[in-house]
Amino acid sequence: MNSESEIIKIILTTHDDLLRAQELASCLVEGRIAACVNLIPNVTSFFHWDNAVQMENEILLMIKTTEEKVPEVQALLEERHSYEVPEIIELDASVLNKPYSDWIRDCLLNAG
Questions:
Q1: What is the CATH number of domain 8-109?
Q2: Which end of the chain has less neighbouring CB within 10 Å, N or C?
Q3: Cα R_g (the chain), whole angstroms
Q4: Mean pLDDT of each 10-residue bin along the chain, 112 residues long
Q5: pTM of structure
Q6: Which helix (H) or strand (E) holds 101?
């Protein structure tokens, strides 16, 4: 697949510890498997766990990558995430401006 047709993906995950979230973000970007990771603090999550509704204050990680790099992102999150069942949601970024999508592709596909 050539770089112009590479699909841009957004992977969402959450973490309950800012320092660990920063470590994950740094590993993803330094490893050139994500072009950018946004950390959005103070996300309140409600979910079922241990037969009860739980509430956690979490950090949302918004990971920008390419379709080709998604398996590497997933593997890193599964290996390094501290949650027993980490959230890994993959979204297509079907509408985004060309200069930004070109920048993502350049960061990941032309890494040396």
A1: 3.30.70.120
A2: C
A3: 15
A4: 68 97 97 97 95 96 96 96 94 87 86 58
A5: 0.89
A6: helix 98-109
